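To assess whether ligand presence alters the predicted conformation, the chain was also submitted together with pyridoxal-5'-phosphate. Input:
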Amino acid sequence: MKVTEEPLITVMDGPWTPEGLIREIVKSGTQEDPFYVMDLGEVVARYHRWRELMPRVEPFYAVKCNDDKLLVSTLAALGTGFDCASKAEIELVTSVGVAPERIIFANPAKLPSHIRYASAVGVDVMTFDSEHELVKIKQLMPRAKLVIRIRCDAASAQFSLGVKFGCDPVTEAPRLLKLAALLGLDIIGVSFHVGCCITETAVYGRAIALSRTLFHIGHKVGHKNMHLLDIGGGFPGDLQSSIREVAEVINSSLEEHFPERTVRVISEPGTYFANAAYTLAAMVYAKRTVVPKECSDIAEKHTMYFINDGVYGSFNKVTFNQSVCAVPVNDYEAPRSACSVWGPTCDGVDCVVASARLPALSEGDWLLFRDMGAYSIAIATRFNGFPIPTVRHVIDARLARVLQERGPLKASHFVAAPAAWRSTDAEVECPAISAAAPSPFLAVLGQC
Ligand SMILES: Cc1ncc(COP(=O)(O)O)c(C=O)c1O
């Protein structure tokens, strides 16, 4: 796997925050490479919130978003399913002990060898959106349980997937359902993906209504076994975001169009589970002051800061117009001035933040970036020879005990925090581990 894995999870016996830990880690001055602090408790909290707000919808984590093995293992312990797009992702998920029934092979255009592999290991459920894929599956795995992927795009999405995948629900899907019936293939349901980082929540209502129509058409042409609705991904994943509004749209649309509980509803959230749990720390290792000149595009004096991670590493999303916020690890109160933040490669597009106001930073100072778990390390390259950041996984002691009891994480995955890390942020109350009230996460772990 591309992810640089830290095999051990550090157990914190007391309040902590990713920011506090990062401050502690860089304090020694020996750290030079960028790194993540990954909070497993955030993943558990998000699982809990999902089950509370959308009890009918089973999450199947989209591994492509971040294939960190310890993230996958944590979600496996919580009981999620998994959306895999390739043989390697199926291998990863089954390697931590997940049963093949908990996997959907949700790539509508699959390599033949990957279909053969899925068949060999018992991953039977897979998506398709074309006649060619149906014929291929008929040849390679005629007993597959098929889910037709339709297109229904949100009015606005950071990443539209409809341009590549999903057949037209009106002009193409009925014909494909008929063809599948003629080929004797087993269609068990409908899936869609409205796009990543969407802002229009009503799209889920439209897509669910379209899916219902296709259940009727499928039934009419002979698919009597349709019982799966897969509502895809697109859910927000930032620390400050909430799925409450989108959950309301989904819950009411399901009640309207799929009131019968015989239809199983699954989803494929990636960003939702991965993003907020990862905080990136990157070091300023060079800087340059630029002043306005005639005939130049520089409007005011500003400082260019060069950090050891960039758009060829963790910040790929910046090239898709997603912005990130650089936060100095120290000196929050210092006066701010105009600056820009650049990645380490020799490419001019390697700009992480084009315009910001930060306190004056020196070489050796650190910046942190929150909400960095989705489509970051999974996409990162070693372009120009710069390393992919390592991940330091951290968890509260009580959650560690519960996760251990559930497997696949074992005692050997955990290690006590070094003395310097303890009570790094005693002033910050960590809601997940408040001693006053029993942790809701422990409760939900007990239930699942
Ligand atoms: C088929 C499929 N499912 C799920 C996802 C995850 O989407 P998100 O990160 O928006 O939850 C993706 C993202 O590309 C996808 O292609």
